[in-house]
């Protein structure tokens, strides 16, 4: 089979065609970056305490005293006993230590300092989902629906943007928690599919230095900037239903881009659709003002031996390289990444500013990824960045309960920087290891295992009940696990992308 990149080298690496694809694809990633961690604001649990009904006829002093200093969001002193003591004219502080406690039978009062309403505050009032347990974990994370490579990159990209937009808007009209869960599940499938397909499409159309610039720097930069826009929107729009409607705007703005973004010629060649691939490439040559060869692909007959094959998830698992990545690396690093994001809610301070800083730290991380991708091996880069994040997370144990909270925040951000840089290198590494015929399936399956990790990560907060530092220790340990398995993967630095499964490099022994 003729080498694809050699066949299309006549186009150059940075002509008008490549620049147009470059910037258009960066724009299409805005909707998924904007919606990535919307769950933090939609499902936020503001500070709250047990509601004391007005008909209890308690003085303000007794109402304040009826809430225990510890577990104040979970319980109150038995209201009947408090009413009896109040009627006797007793001072509140006399008998408090001896009173029994009860659950919040009359609901909760939520602080409106940061949020006008969230799913949590509305569930406990309008949707009547009161639980006997103190902490109710509202997690509506998703797993990526397996998007088979046979449908092409472009339809899947815009289909995922459509899903993201439609179901974001539908959230605003959810009448109950089960309906919200289903809608958010569908939204999540669109969100993760969007970034993966943009990454794959850009990696296949662009070659050389422009591909590295796109995948390592510009695409992640635009993605992070979109993430940074969300806390600003959430700050201005404090109602979760209105915020859900605002989340549809980036997707609607991307609709006109359908006519401007081409299909991947590389994918078309891998499917044996040579005429369509040549048509796109000849238009690209016209845009770049270069003369294409008379025949772009010499081996017209069955350019790929897998033209008639129907590769699937099972074929993916038969390749040892991808199996290591999908089953171990992506799950572990995803738990670390999302665990850091969700654990940020346990820190004091303004949630909008914390989220903004947590997103902004990814910008220098991606600059580092870009510089490393140009001159450093993939495996060494991933291991180095991830170990830096592990070290910062382990040091949090020293500063978590110190007076100067800025130290803890700085270590969290440094940990996020290291884990994010490692995650970014893993995207590049996975794309370079995966052959064209199954690259979209590979990346999507990696995203599926990544989402399995993100679904587990919110529950890390629960581990703090046993030991305050345990969530951070688990995140660091999983990152170390991903480093260990990365050792067995082959190096792909400055190697041509494989087009078939047979061209994949073997694992290290």
TrEMBL record:
Keyword Transmembrane tagged: yes
Primary location recorded for the protein, binned into one broad class: membrane
Transmembrane parts of this sequence: 20-44, 156-174, 180-201, 213-237, 322-340, 352-373, 380-398, 404-429, 466-489
Topology of the protein relative to the lipid bilayer: Multi-pass membrane protein
Top-level taxon of origin: Eukaryota
Keywords, comma-separated and alphabetical: Membrane, Transmembrane, Transmembrane helix
Keyword set includes Cell inner membrane: no
Residues annotated as domain Major facilitator superfamily (MFS) profile: 21-494
UniProt subcellular location: Membrane
PANTHER family: SOLUTE CARRIER FAMILY 22 MEMBER
Protein name: Solute carrier family 22 member 4-like
Organism: Seriola lalandi dorsalis
